């Protein structure tokens, strides 16, 4: 798309303004670093224009943290107390979804699979109710890859979501069906990484 000029304009009867305001389903995949970072950057833009933001992290361990989590909690507080930006929610599978009866100390793949299904069921309910305007489903490709969730069912829900709800999904090995359904797909390709030469992850870079 050189100089912002589209290579193809669909004959869909929509005006340029209407086409610009369509909700986006984005996928950040690939082996390179930066998939979640890019998604959180998009969420920051969404927050800045007042969109209601919800992050759902599909990770096994409650101890797994990213720096953006603390920052977004502060942004959510800023919205609640001063009306600046948008509302923010942050949920982590490894900590036990807040809507389940009890938090799991998941140790087996079966436990993790059930927890992932609980999380996706809640997201599907929120999409149907148009509860948020911007969703980050972080590391969500893994429950799909491992067969914990049915890819076709997930794609059907995402494509049928009502209203104006953006969804960004991150993780390696995004399934072809999801890539086909998405409006925006970016593959992060690793060229070099400090860990390749034995350097450890460091605060402020990896988390």
UniProtKB/TrEMBL annotation:
The keyword tRNA processing does not apply. It comes from the Bacteria. Pfam families: CobA_CobO_BtuR. InterPro entries: CblAdoTrfase_CobA, P-loop_NTPase. This is Cob(I)yrinic acid a,c-diamide adenosyltransferase. It comes from Mycobacterium pseudokansasii. One of its GO terms (biological process) is cobalamin biosynthetic process. Its EC number is 2.5.1.17. The keyword Transferase applies. It is an enzyme of class 2 (transferase). One of its GO terms (molecular function) is corrinoid adenosyltransferase activity. Keywords: Transferase. SUPFAM superfamilies: P-loop containing nucleoside triphosphate hydrolases (SSF52540). PANTHER family: CORRINOID ADENOSYLTRANSFERASE.
